[in-house]
Please model this.
Amino acid sequence: MLACALFALLASCPAAQAAKVKHTFKIEGGNFVYDGKPIQIHSGELHYARIPAPYWRHRIQMMKALGLNAVTSYVFWNHHEVAPGVWDWKTGNRNLREFLKIAGEENMLVILRPGPYVCAEWDYGGYPWWLMKAPGMEVRTLNQPFLDSCRVYINQLASQVRDLQVTKGGPIVMVQAENEFGSYVSQRKDIPFATHKEYAAKIRTQLIEAGFDIPMFTSDGSWLIKEGSIEGALPTCNGENNINKIKEVVNQYHGGVGPYMVAEFYPGWLDHWNEPFQKVSAETVTKQMQKYLDAGVHFNFYMVHGGTNFGFTAGANYSNKKNIQPDITSYDYDAPISEAGWATPKFMAIREMLKKYVKYPVPEIPARIPVISVPNIKLNHTYNFFNYLDKMQPVVNDELLTFEDLNQGQGYVLYRRQFNQPISGVLRAEGIADFGVVYVAGQKVGELNRLTGKDSVMVEIPFNSTLEILVENCGRINYGARITENNKGILKPITIDGNPIEGGWQHFQFPMDKEPMIGNATSYTKGQPVVYQGTFEVNNVGDTFLDMETWGKGIVFVNGFNLGRYWKVGPQQTLYLPGCFLKKGTNRITIFEQLNDDRKATVSGVETPKLDTLKKE
Model:
């Protein structure tokens, strides 16, 4: 967008240096040693894939103003392999090299976490969805097809960043091998321990063979370091508050010496739809941080700035009580730097403490990116979603097909079946994955919701009528043993009144990988899914938050960019719209509303986000 360049100018850009200044970094004598001197690493995690590229420098400068000297980031495999064998390392916020160069220009050390598995509340833990379709493939274990795929990814990554390691004059000082693997070992006791360890060692070997020649580390809960540690890599602890425990377990698996690092120090926590917004107080964070500082323990805030799960990138968890827990679109995380890049009270408390401890200058806090309101955006055009069906050629099959069967990763699939005889009773869809709206003869009769466990509705289908179920993929599981169970759609046969419904299923595919364009259409039927479209004028470009609190469920595009999902259940009720996605003059908004319980005429952009308004189902 044109305005992206404008916002990039908000942050000062140092002139390119004629030659790289080569530094050294090693683990030696129980210390991190930079240019021959022991240093303390005070790092913060942000993910370049969750931040618009024009804002990268601003967010890194916010980290510096917090008092940090290092930036940590995951690399999401599926963010870069956009289709099988198709790689994107250049466009938008996929330009990893540019992000790393900015970090270097801002004199920040970089810690890279390439996985290949990353968790991170990111769809499928960073794996490309089509790995599930590969013959003989089993992810995250000693499986040759999977290891072959990992090698391709790691080699691709290395081709982009190999020369940006500290050994080559770049800012990258450490790289992680695998990620929280100890948790997976503890969850997958069906796999022999020796097999787990051999797999993890092979990931380290692949990184080395690809050209990573900097110190390597692992990160696990302190009680899981035996399971997650890899010979030749520094073990670090995640979420461990006990200083003595940190030293004990690191000494046990690192020759009796440090350095001692908490690779994930949580100043906030993750959030799911239909659950309360999680908060961690500034006092809790600074009290623990002081313990680390006094003991000389290195740390990385996970997250210092969360950003946004734009599009369909949000993942999902699960629990003993819930079959799936989809992550919300915002990855605010109650982090010190908010989703929109603001300094929070927690930020100020951390900054004041770090200024007392660090030996380097802490710069002033960068100016906040401008925020605007956009009231009463008129949605003048509507298009009945079912009208698309007449123009499409469905895939017909006797049995229900999954998204993966249809070679579709994200979005929606509409399942349709014609009935020549009447049938009524309880429609049961035990395999719903993840959210479905059920229609009979075009009339909405109910919803199916894997999150709440609702897998049945009453139906009465008359002679010569249709059953339709619009199914949404709400995000693939990114953590735990069930990462291997990530198919989407309707995964088991549907029954009505106990009778299996087989034969003649039509599958209409809506990946929503592009903004739907509807022209000047005005078709509308209450209860049926609908596409709204409108335009609005912006005189002064700035960030805003689209207020979706009175809407139902769906996604929003602005100027062709998918901002992500909204859902009335909360806790998130607004969608972050970065100003760099807007342009001065006319802008376009498109909303796909799945539930459509009442007609909407307008939507507004407000100046304050709503992330803590739960309307639980």
Remarks:
- Confidence is low (pLDDT under 50) at residues 1-18.
- The longest helix spans residues 144-161.
- The first strand starts at residue 25 and ends at 28.
